Each structure stands twice: as C-alpha cells, then as structure tokens.
Amino acid sequence: MRIATWNINGVKARIDTVLEWLKETSPDVACLQEIKSVDENFQRQPFEDLGYNVETHGQKGFNGVALLSKLPLEDVERRLPGDDGDEQARFIEGAVSSDKGVIRFGCLYLPNGNPLGSEKFPYKLAWMDRLIPHAERRLREENAYLLLGDYNVIPDPIDAKNAKNWLDDALFQPESRQRFRALTNLGFTEAVRACTEAAETYTFWDYQAGAWQKNNGIRIDHILLSPQATDLISGCGIDKHVRGWEKPSDHVPVWVELAA
Questions:
Q1: Helix/strand/coil for 157
Q2: Which of 20, 71, 210, 260 has the fewest CB atoms lying closer than 10 Å?
Q3: What does DSSP say about strands 189-190 and 221-225: parallel, antiparallel, or unpaired?
Q4: In this structure, are residues 226 and 141 in contact, taking their beta carbons and an 8 Å threshold?
Q5: How far is CA 157 from CA 7, 72, 121, 208, in A?
Q6: 3-class state of residue 192 by DSSP
Q7: How many Å apart are CA 122 and CA 119, to the nearest integer?
Q8: pLDDT in tens, the chain (260 residues)
Q9: Element containing residue 190 per DSSP (H, E)
Q10: The one catalytic residue among 52, 109, 145, 202
Q11: Which DSSP helix (H) or strand (E) runs through 164?
C-alpha cells in the first residue's frame, strides 16, 4: 500500500498536474494540502473517475486539506482538537481497512508562522502544542497510524541547501524544531530519514531566484509512522521530478510503502 502526501498549492491551478501524477504513480492513499477550495467547490469528479474516494476539509482561498483513497474511507474527522475557535482548515483524518488491519492517517498543513514578530508565529507554536497531545492519544491506541503532510519545519541543517539563510525564518526557529522533535520523540519514525541520510534530500523549492534550477531546496514535508506502521514499512521516496513539470507546485509528493 502506497500512502503519499503533497502540498499541491491550489487544486484549481494544479488539477492537471495532480491527475497526471496520480495516473503515473497510482498511490492507494493521497493526502493533499493547500487545496485552497471550499468543500462544495472541490473538483471531486476527476479524482472519482480515477477510482478515488474523496473527503475534504476546505476553506475559501486558503489552506484546506483532502484525502483521496482507493479503499473506502472510514471514521473521517475534521479539525485538530484543542481549539474550537480555530477556523483554519488544516487537518483531516481518516482510516482504511487492509489485510493487516486498520490503517489510520492524519493529513496536516501546519502553519507557516512567518513573519516572525507577528501573531502568526505564536499561532504556529500553539498549533503544534495541540498536535503533540493528539498524536500521543493516537499512539496509545497502538494501531498503524501515519501523521503526514506539510509541516513547515526544517528539522535539521542537513535539510536545507543553505541552512544559514533560514535562521530568521519561522520554519527553522529553535521553538519550531524543538516541537517537531518532541513529536517524533513520542515514538514516531520519520519515514524519509529511516530510508536515507543523504544530503540534498528536499521536498520544496521556492518559485523565486531559480531555486529549482540551483537545487536550493528544503525538506519540510514529512511522514511520521507509529511503531505499528513502522513494522510494515517496505520503502519510501520523494517524487522530485514532478517539480520540473509545467505549472508545478513548489512542493513535491513524498510517499511510503507499507506491506499492508
């Protein structure tokens, strides 16, 4: 079973690119971020025509997350617990039943947090402070669980071409990185780093200053696996080539294979 995550940077602008990728790689589950669409306007039919069940948690013009699954989606929950007043559409969870039992996955679009000094950075940290206890609750259920998406966190200097250029950015602040580490230290395995320790392993290249052409990237899209999901892992990868397609997102898909 292949489970993938991708910040598509707008379903309306990127629909052809996303469909091309789905036809090429055929993931069993795809978790999409930054769909930038309300639920009723999300273009479901093209995905359903490819055999996917679709669930969304959308917001007009900003944010938004979606689940695509070839298997029926079960027990779908929207919104990250912990703040009923948070109107930003950044989290959706669902589950599928496989031969190895139920596999649950949380799709997240973690706040960017920039600029520093604005209200956006405290919001990012507060969101992460809500995510950690939620993830801990899921781990206590002792099921195969994946927490995947655009974390907007550069975990370590190796995860940026030029780490010093990010010292004043919310993605690389000690507070952001410490919370990401607290999350993984609950007992998650970070899929990509379980598969490779190679430098220049990136998932995002800015549209500006020729970042793609210079391979001036960062790694901010992550898949975290519970111990039960880690036991099933058979491979993972990053579909870097998609960044070179026409009208690309600035992110690329990240995926994990499970023996499920």
A1: helix
A2: 210
A3: antiparallel
A4: no
A5: 22, 40, 20, 21
A6: helix
A7: 6
A8: 999 999 999 999 999 999 999 999 999 999 999 999 999 999 999 999 999 999 999 999 999 999 999 999 999 999 999 999 999 999 999 999 988 799 999 999 999 999 999 999 999 999 999 999 999 999 999 999 999 999 999 999 999 999 999 999 999 999 999 999 999 999 999 999 999 999 999 999 999 999 999 999 999 999 999 999 999 999 999 999 999 999 999 999 999 999 98
A9: strand 189-190
A10: 109
A11: none
Structure tokens at 258: 């499970």
**Predicted local confidence at residue 22, as pLDDT:** 98
61 burial level (CB within 10 Å; 0-12, 13-18, 19+): exposed
Q: Is 109 part of the annotated catalytic residue set?
A: yes
Q: How far is CA 144 from CA 50, 114, 188, 201, in A?
A: 26, 33, 11, 26
- Is 209 buried (19+), middle (13-18) or exposed (0-12) by CB count in 10 A? exposed
Catalytic-labelled residue, pool 150, 159, 169, 221:
150
Q: Give the neighbor-by-neighbor strand order of the sheet with 221-225.
A: 74-78, 91-98, 101-109, 144-150, 221-225, 189-190
DSSP assignment string, 103-153? EEEEEEE----PSTTSTHHHHHHHHHHHHHHHHHHHHHTTSEEEEEEE---
Residue with tokens 């940290």: 125
Q: Is 150 one of the annotated active-site residues of the chain?
A: yes
Cβ neighbours of 195 (radius 10 Å): 16
Question: Quick one: tokens of 246?
Answer: 């026409």
pLDDT for position 179: 98
Q: What is the pTM of this model?
A: 0.97
CB 87 within 8 A of CB 95: no
